[in-house]
Task: inverse folding
């Protein structure tokens, strides 16, 4: 396995090749639920190892930032020891062992929860995971970009969420990676939406929201830690948000709530550059 330099490129620079999808896509379901193999090559399954270590089960999503670092939600890993966490990278269908390219497995070298993470409010819900061996990039394994420094307000932009979470509140988990398009709404509008159904939720600037007034496509249990991703004008995808919390799944006027990654860009940079 090739070794990477000790200082990893800060892959928010789109010239570094982050956020790039394959040139073609096949098998997409128009409803926007089922993805295609390799179409979201930065997706990671963050898994909880069994007590005896012989198997693991999907707990949360995550994304590749560079050869050594994964981003996920703080609440996904704050209660787990490093030895209890494993990663599947380049995964698509949990039930299929004959995919075009195999997934790879990694253990954990370092787990960093944001120092201001609040397990009661889910504020600063962000964690970085350093893998125990560098990740080799390939056709189905690539990093996502971080938000550019000049990222404007993303309100009213379309975004895509991806994950292996439950297909409905209390329903079964997805075996195949799913995707859905959702509109980003302003924090003020998000608070108004919650208020319209009798919930007084404060949405500070470290959070962001995405979803529909009428309900519908949304992140759900098991999608936590995965990306809310936006495509820029050059075709590169960047990590706008990380799935944090929600009330139900796809309920009217109850959008999904995400950690706003642009606020934490420098904090992320400080780790992935210098370790």
Result:
């Amino acid at each position: 396995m090739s070794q990477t330099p000790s200082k990893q490129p800060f892959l928010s620079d789109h010239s570094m090749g982050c956020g790039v999808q394959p040139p073609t896509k096949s098998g997409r379901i128009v409803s926007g639920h089922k993805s295609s193999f390799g179409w979201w090559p930065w997706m990671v399954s963050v898994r909880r190892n069994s007590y005896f270590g012989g198997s693991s089960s999907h707990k949360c999503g995550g994304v590749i930032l560079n050869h050594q670092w994964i981003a996920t939600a703080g609440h996904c890993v704050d209660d787990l020891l490093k030895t209890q966490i494993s990663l599947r990278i380049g995964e698509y269908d949990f039930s299929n062992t004959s995919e075009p390219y195999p997934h790879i497995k990694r253990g954990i070298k370092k787990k960093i929860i944001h120092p201001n993470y609040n397990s009661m409010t889910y504020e600063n819900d962000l964690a970085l995971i350093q893998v125990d061996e560098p990740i080799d990039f390939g056709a189905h394994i690539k990093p996502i970009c971080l938000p550019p420094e000049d990222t404007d307000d993303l309100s009213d932009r379309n975004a895509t969420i991806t994950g292996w979470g439950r297909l409905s509140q209390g329903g079964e988990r997805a075996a195949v990676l799913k995707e859905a398009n959702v509109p980003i709404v302003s924090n003020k509008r998000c608070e108004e939406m919650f208020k319209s159904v009798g919930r007084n939720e404060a949405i500070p600037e470290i959070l962001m929201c995405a979803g529909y007034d009428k309900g519908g496509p949304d992140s759900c249990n098991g999608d936590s830690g995965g990306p809310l991703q936006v495509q820029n004008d050059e075709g590169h995808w960047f990590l706008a948000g990380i799935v944090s919390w929600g009330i139900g799944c796809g309920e009217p006027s109850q959008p999904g709530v995400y950690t706003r990654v642009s606020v934490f860009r420098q904090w992320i940079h400080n780790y992935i550059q210098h370790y």
About this structure: Confidence is low (pLDDT under 50) at residues 1-15, 26-32. The first strand starts at residue 43 and ends at 49.
